[in-house]
Amino acid sequence: MKRLIGLVFLIFLIGVLTPEGSASEKEWKMLDKKSSELFKDGRYEEAVKVNHEALKLVRAEFGDQHIEVAYFFNKLGLCYRFLDRFEEAEPLYLKALEIRRQLLAAEAPDVAESVNNLGTLYYLQERYEESEPLYRESLKTHEAVLGSEHLYVAQVSSNLASVCVKLGKYKEAESLYNKSLAIVKKRDPRVIDFLLNKMIELYKLTGEEEKIKELEIKLEARAKVRKIKDRQIEDEKEEKKGMIEEIKNILTSDNE
Description:
Serine Threonine Protein Phosphatase 5, Tetratricopeptide repeat; mainly alpha
């Protein structure tokens, strides 16, 4: 009987001492969600303040060397980057990357994300020689983890291509843009125009007029197709609107 009472008491203690989530955890998760919404709305200054609040709670709960701490360092770095406050973004990105390298496998997606973010920051600062190896590392990791057809691979390939253009590595840039284009054609056609325009910029630098004309024809054709589709959508809306009005008229006449 004593053993049974002891077991019941132990179960009670476990339930009390291991709650589903501490008050602090619930608060920083709520702040995380709020900051993401602010960032999505372009309210970066407000997002910075909320992320700082969340980071303070996370560091108090887990210490400085924790994956959640790295997560908020990365989010803050992104906010500062979008505010063009690059000098403030860099140490945050570096700290996020340092923690992730220490705690995660070398090929972890979060490590690749931090590497790519830092590469983008250096690109925006025109630090192309520093940006290039970071993009190469990120591309290698994303391909190894996600496969060669993933949209992240397309994104990083395009990023690396842009750096190659700045460094005068035009042939490699062309190859990378084509690689990215092949992926987005299958995965996200909305990005095709962006990549075609990037390739036109490249061919202007290399003086390849025939390739420029070819891509401009493709862009023009895609614009015409979009216009036709938009017109069809509008026609369908008008047709539905007319049908609804007709049904309302029929119902009204029946009531009379």
